[in-house]
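TEACHING EXERCISE
Course module: macromolecular assemblies
Task: Read the component lines below, then compare them to the predicted structure of the full complex.
Student: A.B.
Group: 4
Components provided:
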Amino acid sequence: MARRTTLRQKSLTTILAWAIGLAIFFPILWTAMAAFKSEANAYTMPQDWWSTPWTLENFSIVQERSNYLRYVFNTTVISIASTLLGLAIAVPAAWSMAFQPEERATVSWPGYVWLIIILGSFAAAGAIAYSVGWGMADRPLLGLALILLFGVPITAWVWTRRTGDTLLWMLSTKMMPPAGALIPIYLIFNRNGLIFKDWGPIDLREWNLIDTFTGMIPLMMLLNLPIIIWMLYTYFKEIPYEILEAARMDGAGLFKELWNVLAPMAVPGIASTILLNVILAWNEAFWTLNLTNKYAAPLSFFISEYSSPEGQFWAKLSAASLMAIAPIMVLGWFSQKQLVRGLTFGAVK
Amino acid sequence: MATRQGQALGRLALAPSVAVLAIWAFVPLALAIYYAFLHYNLQDPDNTFYAGWSNFYYFVTDPFFARDLVNTIALVVLILVITVVGGVLLALLLDRPFWGRGIVRVLIISPFFIMPTVSALVWKNLMMHPVYGLLAQVWRDFGLKPLDWFASIPLFSVGIVVGWQWLPFATLILLTAMQSLDEEQKEASQLDGADPISYFFYIVLPHLSRAITVVILIETIFLLNVFAEIKVTSVGGFAGNLTYLVFSQLNDANDVGAAAAGGLIAVVLANIVAMFLVRLIGRNLEA
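Instructor-supplied answer key:
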């Protein structure tokens, strides 16, 4: 019974909770302190953490040596642009699923028919590739045709499901391990990839998306798109349908209904979605480590560079880390609710 | 209900998302299957031919594969134990009234927003360094010989770092679930004279079981892919996981075929977990 908790109990809980909270937060606090120490003093922190002098020099040195602001700029551009791009695609989709749901599959073939079609097309694509000797380097058009043969039936199946199943499938794309996509994406990005040769009229030998914004922004968008769609969908679902009906009774057309009635009510949900997805994109570290190294490299890559000379630049590492995590951590404090909503896919209410 | 015009517009509005995600889901998969049956080394791209199942055979019989598969599972289990047990205890604590609850909550969730490369390097250097690290100092204060964490127990150390990052996630979800516990049920159990331990095991834990399942499934999907922490702490050579092995097949051996085969194995592994998660989510969507 919460109300009858004694003062003594409450004090004890307070002490325990603060001790644990500070312990968990401690590595961050420790980083923040090391950032303001000179390089030599950063090593003796465990003993002299308070007595040694404080300094701001690390921040200017980090900026001077490695043009730190450039990485801040890259991270900001990639995370914000990918989120906005995702939003442009996801808002219509979420609106459609929340307000115009399909109650049943639009093509009502039984499951086994679909299964035969999909497995059959897989097998056919494989058989064709095998019969020509599996090499696609000189047959880019055949390669493309086989990808279509592989992908179109299964996409058609996804596309004709009822809304609930389409949404589930979208969420499931977030569960694909990056290790599985790494090789194809790396080869698509890199002009060394087998398919990107000189094939007649179009010469793709100079094709390169590695370490470019043109590659990273759409990729980051794809990574987070399922979460963006999902969050928007849950927020849109909360907008009462009666309001739309009332607007229709008053003679509002579809456009008026969207712009004057729905849009204003959707703003808070869209803002929360942006917040969480900027955080997720900011911290992404699998694809950035694999696909960037200089020009479009974000902060997560920049910090990883400190791993090579083991333990040489602690104060600088701390200063760079502090600047990289502080803004996003503060944003994160405001996104606790969105975090639960966005990352549990509604499995916890 | 929905108008005809709206319905048609709805299909149209859904199309870009479905198309983009279908490309994202199926093109890399098709290419991965293709590469997995191809002998293709980036060092020697001209000598490329159909390789049958040899890439899979090579990847699976690689002595690193068995070790890294065990590492992958051990890492997931270790982190799940840290986060679920820690998360339940923290949620119990945060659910009680005390002074400064908001601030303690903020302190506890903060690690989740730290980028993986930062937390890995901060833990490796500032906390776990065998000479200058904070933990080394603590060990010395207790008269013990400081531990060289990442050299002697690399997998466990990575587990601590990643566990620290995911503990807030588990805590937050379990706390949300805890707060939906019926106040009357709480009071009824107290009136019946339930002691705190049986209250926990008979009321709280069953109530949390669903949230715990969700935490386990979601974390497993993300934790199968732990990569940055392993790479920047340079323990991939002796405590790598499957994701890291695929990366090193591409990066160090330049062997596209074997890496693609390994990637497909990772996909199968993740799909087993994803199947349970999708079912769980699907059941909730209906409700």
